[in-house]
Design a protein that fits this description.
This protein has 138 residues and is α+β, with helices and mostly antiparallel strands. 31% of the residues lie in helices and 21% in strands. The chain has a domain at 14-102: Ribosomal Protein S5, domain 2. The protein has 4 helices and 5 strands. A 5-stranded mixed β-sheet has the order 1-2-5-3-4. A hairpin with a 2-residue loop joins strand 1 and strand 2.
């Protein structure tokens, strides 16, 4: 599996998994210069609106290590925002695996909390999870 990685991503890495709704992100942190690839594309093209890229980089900015790691991500499922939140959680978890002393700082910033909200299942007799069929009095 390491043979398919570019030369800058060879060697030891720290791993973290992030999830949000149906999105899953597998994140690898390598010692490097701050490059980030998501699904073999540069992060700036994959996460097009700048606020999504800022959201993903928030854990690294919080601890002051933005340009210390190269990041390789495999993201699947969900939409762009869900994938961005999943990547953010994966980065935070990988940082904690690397250095346990960062846990308090990342927890205080809200970067280690998985968002549990997901789509509620449809119930029988209803049109959606809670939407009842229209009632006609006459």
């Amino acid at each position: 599996m390491d043979e398919a990685l570019p030369a800058q991503f060879k060697g030891k890495y720290h791993y973290g998994t992030g999830r949000r709704k149906t999105a899953t992100a597998r994140v690898r942190l390598y010692e490097g210069k701050g490059q980030m690839t998501i699904n073999d594309k540069p992060a700036t093209t994959y996460l097009n609106p700048q606020h999504l890229l800022d959201m993903v980089m928030a854990p690294l900015v919080k601890i002051g290590m933005k340009d210390r790691f190269d990041i390789s991500v495999k993201a699947m499922g969900g939409g762009p925002v869900s994938q961005a939140v999943a990547i953010q959680l994966g980065i935070a978890r990988a940082l904690v695996k690397m250095d346990e002393s960062l846990k308090a700082t990342l927890r205080a910033g809200g970067h280690l909390t998985r968002d549990p909200r997901a789509k509620e299942r449809k119930k029988y007799g209803l049109k959606r999870a809670r939407r009842a069929p229209q009632f006609a009095k006459r």
